[in-house]
Design brief:
Elements (H helix, E strand, L loop, with lengths): L5 H13 L5 H13 L7 H4 L6 H19 L7 E2 H4 L9 E2 L2 E2 L6 H4 L3 E2 L2 H22 L1 H22 L9 H17 L7 H21 L13 H18 L7 H21 L1
Antiparallel strand pairs: 1-4, 2-3
Length: 276
């Protein structure tokens, strides 16, 4: 028997169970309908794994290795990474006492390679690999690098506007950008992706869990005012969402998606003008 929607299919299976009838074939079909989901046109999974996620692995190894190398020399207590090589020259902070650091543009990117603890760098690295690897295998190295870097810069901009006197470090803004871009990928290629519904549930649950940990203070500690921040997460997420819509790989372009791209370009332009 055919059903118009997965909900009708699920209701029919549940009714059969209540009346002592369990149709294994129907339950299997329901699983395929709800969890696996049918694909229209090109299957995205057939286009994945065309390339190894070199960029994601490089950023992860660079961040973790820098923290581990300098932490091993100091008992693993404190903030380590690129800022250990050039103290206070790489973390992001608009003002340090009376020093104006707004024109030190390298900080928009360099802050990502410093972390405050093993938990901080491990949690960010795990998120980077979990979200970034499948994203890069489908979208390619340059798209992943562009969207990630835009998220790092977007996180820096948002942090400078909303929390100008606090130092920022860590790759979490970039991780949030790739997560948002993954969500935009699901939206643009919805009918070309298997297991699309579980994927979106997992991504949203991961975002909620990370936000909950941050709100509860179960994060990474701080050193001389250097902390991760909600503004950087927000800025990275918004930047990743916009860049994902603009530059993400779209297998079946529709007219409404073109309109969405124009909207995203307008948001990007407005954000750049507002920050300037």
């Amino acid at each position: 028997q055919s059903y118009d929607t997965p909900v009708q299919h699920a209701d029919a299976v549940a009714a059969g169970v209540r009346h002592g009838r369990f149709d294994l074939e129907s339950a299997s079909a329901l699983y395929d309908d709800v969890v696996v989901a049918s694909v229209v046109g090109v299957d995205q999974e057939q286009l994945m794994c065309q390339s190894f996620p070199f960029f994601v692995v490089f950023v992860t190894l660079a961040s973790f290795s820098l923290w581990l190398y300098y932490a091993a020399q100091s008992g693993f207590e404190g903030t380590f990474g690129l800022d250990s090589l050039w103290p206070k020259q790489t973390r992001l902070q608009m003002y340090d006492d009376c020093a104006d650091q707004r024109l030190q543009l390298w900080r928009w990117l360099s802050y990502q390679f410093t972390h405050v603890s093993l938990y901080h760098v491990s949690f960010n690295s795990a998120g980077m690999l979990f979200v970034g690897s499948p994203f890069e295998t489908f979208h390619g190295h340059w798209r992943a690098a562009l969207i990630y870097s835009a998220g790092v810069v977007g996180g820096a901009w948002c942090h400078m506007v909303l929390d100008a006197h606090t130092a920022l470090i860590g790759i979490s803004a970039g991780v949030y950008a790739l997560t948002a871009a993954y969500l935009s990928d699901l939206a643009l290629n919805w009918y070309s992706i298997k297991y699309r519904k579980p994927r979106i549930v997992i991504l949203v649950a991961g975002l909620a869990l990370d936000s909950g940990f941050t709100a509860a203070g179960i994060t990474n500690g701080n050193d001389e005012g250097a902390i991760t921040s909600h503004p950087s997460h927000l800025g990275g997420f918004v930047a990743g969402l916009i860049m994902g819509v603009l530059f993400g790989r779209n297998l079946r372009v529709q007219r409404c998606e073109r309109a969405l791209q124009l909207l995203a370009f307008g948001a990007l332009l407005a954000g750049g003008i507002a920050f300037a």
